What does this fold into?
Amino acid sequence: MNPALDPLSSEVGLDRPGNERLRFEFGHACAQRVRHLLEDPVAVECLEALGAFLAGGLERSALDDCARRATLAANRHPGSKSIDGCGHAAVSATYAVANAVSGKARQAADYAAYAVVYAGGGYGAVADPASFAPEHEWQAACLAGLANSRGASDPA
It folds into this structure.
């Protein structure tokens, strides 16, 4: 969904097997941007667990457990009770966390962008591609910065 992120993801090799940490770092960064929209304590706990994993304080098996729990929380989210859809921001934010913890960074970025836009204006904003531009720009800059700091754009 982010037209700038697709070519950048290819350029830095985001999906290469050796770049798993980069996927976790980028997914974590995107999900952190929508943390304030989370309603489910399980999603918050799993996002914190991803941070702990990245800091070296959590075993992979515990992170894998969080990925399952976060996905379940996202799939069970009741959705929006508001007529304009602003409540969907929490659903999208929860899916951003579930994908980030599962190592699906691009999907986490997409859900995080939707969460930001839903929170700012509901259905109307989501229908306007320009509403996504600020978040998309941030995401591209974030991924480029993470990749440059890790040397992820070097050929494998």
Notes: Residues 152-156 have pLDDT under 50 and may be disordered.
